[in-house]
Amino acid sequence: MTSEVAHAKRALRAELRERRRTRPAHVVDAANLGFTENLIALAKETDAHTISAYLSTSFEPDTRPFLNWALADGRRVLLPIARQDGLLDWAEGDGETETEGLYGLPEPVGGILGPIAINDADLILIPASAVDEHGTRMGWGRGYFDRTLGSMENCPPVFAVVFDDEILDEVPRELHDAPVDGAVTPTRIIRFAN
């Protein structure tokens, strides 16, 4: 059963990665404006003073305009740093300085706060390849965020950031997959009844 689910996830990820790769630039630009607007609205609505987010890659929804807004608004931003052991360290982002980290992912430059810094977050924004209508999130296959969320005792609201066509009826799920409370798309903020 597990190998069937893992195979289904790999196939779906490949399809979604290709869809993102071939999305026209003008569509992505318009979507990014919507992402920023909805992320700001969510941060204000949840009154999140410390926000855990991520530095987006070139094929993900652009988080940088939102991060710049959050910092300019006096909010603390925690950004992940992937470790070889499968855990995430955290650093405070300045909205400007980043480097290439493990797997070629963008990471903040700054003092490392360690894995438990995530417990200070009032809102967690995480990347995803897709989310289903039940709040099942499918990441990109390394499990960093599933491990992080699974280890938290008092988890604040967790929202995946995805394009509208990545909200699916159902995504393949394994036991370790941590659900999300909602999703942010270019056109809406969705909350799931978990």
TrEMBL record:
InterPro entries: FTHF_cligase, FTHF_cligase-like_sf, NagB/RpiA_transferase-like. It holds the Pfam family 5-FTHF_cyc-lig. The keyword Iron does not apply. It comes from the Bacteria. Its cofactor is Mg(2+). ATP binds at K9, R10, A11, L12, R13. GO terms for biological process: folic acid-containing compound biosynthetic process; tetrahydrofolate interconversion. It is an enzyme of class 6 (ligase). Substrate binds at L55, E60. Keywords: ATP-binding, Ligase, Magnesium, Metal-binding, Nucleotide-binding. Gene3D superfamilies: NagB/RpiA/CoA transferase-like. Its EC number is 6.3.3.2. One of its GO terms (molecular function) is ATP binding. NCBIfam families: MTHFS_bact. PANTHER family: 5-FORMYLTETRAHYDROFOLATE CYCLO-LIGASE, ATPASE INHIBITOR/5-FORMYLTETRAHYDROFOLATE CYCLO-LIGASE. This is 5-formyltetrahydrofolate cyclo-ligase.
